Amino acid sequence: MVNLLSANLLRLRKSPLFWEMSALSFAFGAFMCITRVYERSTYGFSVSLDSVFFGYAMVMGIVMATFIPMFFGTEHSDGTIRNKLAIGHSRVAIYLSGLIVSFGAAVTFYAAYLLACIVVGIPFIGNLDLPASLTAAALCGSLLMAAAFCAIFLSVTMNQSRKATSVVVCLLGTFLLLILAVVINAKLNAPEFIDLYSLDVDGVCTPRIEPNPAYLSGMEREVYRFLYDLLPTGQAIQYSNVAFTSPIRLMGLGAAVSMISAAAGAALFQRKDLR
Amino acid sequence: MMNLLSAGFFRLWRSKSFWVSLAVMAIVGAIEPLFGYAAMAELAANGSMDASVSLDSRYIIFPFLSGILSSAFCALFVGAGHSDGGIRSKLAAGHRRAVVYLSELILCVTAGALLCLGYIAAVLATGIPLLGPMRTPLLTVLWYTLCAVIMTTAITALFTTISILCHNKAVAAVACIFLAYFLLFLGIFLNARLAEPEFYPAHQSIEDGQIVTVEARPNPGYIRGMKRAVYQFLFDLPGCQAVQLSVTMTTGVPPRLPLWSLASMTMFAGLGVALFRKKDLK
């Protein structure tokens, strides 16, 4: 296991894709901060580092959906997995080392983004205004969300011999889940009541309130809420806006998705015909 | 050319990526009216005054989907020619590079158009019984459909060019899918910016139970001059055009859009032939 990890980390260090994505993550963080500074100077908006600090959560899925199939898909195409098995490593150890390294890559990309926020954001925008407990919850939660993305994409990549197919499945799947999360968010945010006004013949305006037929209530609302919290893309929206009501529930669901995806992926990989 | 096309269509017929893409289009096309029907039933049950959902709103979606799915399809289908050595074999058999490129282009463009037809057939088959006929006049719908299919073929030509020039199938897939989504989101952004009014009209609002009149005022965010021309040019390009098509479906799609699509397709084809001639196929 240690040898596998060491080999994977060496390959990661030598991978141009890894360094390019780290650089892009840093550039993205700097761009987000500069955009806020531009908005403040052009439109006079009051801006805060809070609005960009966890913004990477929103793109984490797309980044990992590109990186994991490109990096680990090569193991299939180059026959590296067969070599590892031939020298006596177990399939579970190969899978777990992949999972640990992919999570390490996700943390590095996130750290590159945060570094840009600190280096560029703090001098030009100012410090974080969020309470320390909320910052810690958002940081831990978004790392668990990253682990969930890694587990899902690795299970696809390790069980699909064709690298290009893994890329397509992961990327299209991520965008689909992102759109689904946006739709669920819009439904959950529908107001319970609508403000209406009626004007009588004397020109007197009377406000009245009517229930919104599109408002989700009861069991239906609970189901939508659960799906929104369960989907890593739903969590991404919540963490990027630092708008979550129950961090423990989100973290628990993130950990559950990670473990279930990793276990399912490893079980399928055990039975996979590697040709 | 005929031999290449004949072999290519046989390959297309047996292509998993084509059938999966077509199945996704047909499934989404069949499900969309079901969602519309469920929304209609829910609104009626909640006592909404206007509980009707039109088939038109479900029909207009296909240019968005066809652009995204054709990006994945082109990368996988054309990329298979690279990885299997099919392209080299065709050249070794004496076919010219321009002819090989054009045959791939015709195959992908045909597949793109078939993806659109797959959605249209499914949405009409389930939508007409559930939601009733479309409210937009038939000729306007046919014109929209023609423009949307032409746009899909134009964007498919772009993806074919990228896929045939990129030797690595996975890299081509990433590039095509990112480009498809980038163009779509760019279209949404440009639509929002271009649709901003030049002046905010005078309006009345209620504050503390009193009607307050607010005078008309210019919109500082309105885009004008050269910047507007550049935005409009980008908005007319295939990909971004999908948003413009959906916005103008009921009023009639401007004729310049299919002309832009055809011009773009010709440009992508010309560029593709020129670059593919110089490409090192290893």
What does this entry look like structurally?
- The complex is a heterodimer of chains A (275) and B (282).
- Chain A contains eleven helices and two strands, in the order ααααααααββααα.
- Chain A has 275 residues and is mainly alpha-helical.
- Chain A has a two-stranded antiparallel ribbon.
- Chain A is globular.
- The two termini of chain A are 23 Å apart.
- In chain B, a hairpin with a 2-residue loop joins strand 2 and strand 3 (210-214).
- Chain B starts with a helix and ends with a helix.
- The interface between A and B is medium-sized, with 20 and 22 residues.
Strands, helices and their partners?
The complex is a heterodimer of chains A (275) and B (282).
Chain A: H1 2-14, H2 16-43, H3 50-53, H4 56-77, H5 80-86, H6 91-124, H7 132-158, H8 163-188, E1 193-199, E2 205-211, H9 218-230, H10 232-240, H11 247-271
Antiparallel strand pairs in A: 1-2
Chain B: H1 2-13, H2 16-45, H3 56-59, H4 62-83, H5 86-92, H6 97-131, H7 138-165, H8 169-194, E1 199-200, E2 203-207, E3 210-214, E4 217-218, H9 226-235, H10 241-248, H11 256-278
Antiparallel strand pairs in B: 1-4, 2-3
Helix pairs in contact in B: 1-6, 2-4, 2-6, 4-6, 4-7, 4-8, 6-7, 6-11, 7-8, 7-11, 8-9, 8-10
H/E element sequence of chain B = HHHHHHHHEEEEHHH
Indicate the percent of residues in helices of chain B.
Answer: over 70%
| Biggest pleated sheet of chain B | 2 strands, antiparallel
**How much strand content do the residues of chain B show?**
under 5%
Kindly, what is the distance between the CA atoms of the first and last residues of chain A, rounded to a whole number of angstroms?
A: 23 Å
How many domains of chain B? The number is: 1
Order of helices and strands of chain A: HHHHHHHHEEHHH
Q: How many distinct helices of chain B? A: 11
Low-confidence stretches of chain A: none
Main-sheet strand order of chain B equals 1-4
- The residue-averaged pLDDT of chain A reads 88
Secondary structural class of chain B:
mainly alpha
Structural class of chain A: mainly alpha
**Main sheet: strands, sense, barrel of chain A:** 2 strands, antiparallel
Mass-distribution shape of chain A: globular
The unreliable regions of chain B are: none
Distance between the termini of chain B: 23 Å
Total number of helices of chain A? 11
Instruction: From the alpha carbons, calculate the radius of gyration of chain A and give it in angstroms.
Output: 22 Å
Strand-residue fraction of chain A?
A: 5-15%
